[in-house]
Every structure is written in structure tokens, then in C-alpha cells.
Amino acid sequence: AFFWLLSLLAASLLWSVCVRLSGRQDAALLPLGAAAAVLLQELCRFACFKALKKADEGLATLSEDGRSPISLRQMAYVSGLSFGIISGVFSILNVLVDCAGPGTVGIHGDSPYYFITSAFLTMALVLLHTFWGVIFFDACERRRAGVLGLVVGSHLLTSGLTFLNPWYEASLGPIFILMLCTGLWAFSTAGGSFHNVLKCLSCKGE
């Protein structure tokens, strides 16, 4: 979460500099600002991987059997989940403030589905960050630049789709499809399989 906050700080400083240099603050700068924020988040995710990798090596040297008590996949999951939670908190915070009043969404032609759509979008972003964290860490460990590019590209695509709002069916639908596909990809990356799912369900049945 700290690394995500660093990316938010860097994106805010970059936005302030761009606005001062350009002398304007209009909608034309928003896509560029969003793209820069995504790239800074992924850069901080990589910095988080390097920091956790160093910590993992330190834990391994201190342990009796020479192995770290925390696996890389566990660190990837926790890192992705923390990125998602702090991102979700910041994305929904202003919506909750507006929800407190005094205005009511829908009276002057605004969509009455604004709040429920924002909630679903925040949920999707939290899960996507968790999945991206698992895939990203595995790609860094295996040195797969193409996979890293796909993670960054899907993050940019998700951010870009939000600019289709308030045409919610055009943004929320593709984002949820991307979330499901990324979740299956992360599940496979973490070593999961359909056979394991069936085995898990059969154990529960017993």
C-alpha cells in the first residue's frame, strides 16, 4: 500500500507540473494523466517486488533450514491485494463524500446507477490489482518481459475504459470480462488447475 501511495504522490506532482507548464487544466490532459499514473503504479509495483525479494533473501539467511518462511506467491498475493485495497479506497472515497449530500444523483439527468456502478467498478479494480500482482511477480521472477507488457497493457486498457462513463455498459462489461480472464490467468500462474478445483470440491463434499 505504501508503494501505491508513492505512485499516487508521483502522479500528483507530475500532474501539477504539467498543468503549470501548459497553463491549462482541461479534459485533454486527463487521458495522459491517467496513463502516466498507471505507468507509475506499475513502476512502484516493480520496486515493491525488488524490495520484497531482498527481504525474502534476508529471511532465508536467518532461517534454520535456509529457506524463507514466506513464498514468493504469498508475497505477490498480499502485495497485489494491498495495491487493490488502497486503490479502491481512494477511488471510492470521493464518491462516498458526494453520496453524503446535499445533492441526489439522477435529478438533473445524471445516471441513477452512478453509485452502484462505482461500487462494482471499485470491486473489479481491487480484484484486478490482486491478479496483476500475482502475474507481475511471477513474470519478474521468470524474467518474462512479454507478460509484464501484457499486465501493463491490461492496466492501461482498464483505465482507458473508465473514460467511457457514464456509458456504463460499455465500460463495466469489458472491465468485468477482463477481470475474469485475468483471474483465470492468475489462478493458472499460481499453480491452480481444474483438477485441483474438483479435488477441493470433492473434499468438501466428503
UniProtKB/TrEMBL annotation:
GO biological process terms, semicolon-separated: Notch signaling pathway; protein processing
Protein localization: Membrane
Main location: membrane
Entry annotated with the keyword Transmembrane helix: yes
Residues spanning the membrane: 28-48, 75-93, 113-135, 147-168, 174-194
Alphabetically ordered keywords of this record: Membrane, Notch signaling pathway, Signal, Transmembrane, Transmembrane helix
Any one annotated GO CC term: gamma-secretase complex
Membrane topology: Multi-pass membrane protein
Pfam families documented for this protein: Aph-1
Keyword Transport applies: no
Signal sequence residues: 1-16
Protein family (similarity comment): Belongs to the APH-1 family.
SUBUNIT field: Component of the gamma-secretase complex.
Job of this protein: Potential subunit of the gamma-secretase complex, an endoprotease complex that catalyzes the intramembrane cleavage of integral proteins such as Notch receptors.
Protein name per its UniProtKB record: Gamma-secretase subunit APH-1
Gene symbol of the encoding locus: Aph1a_1
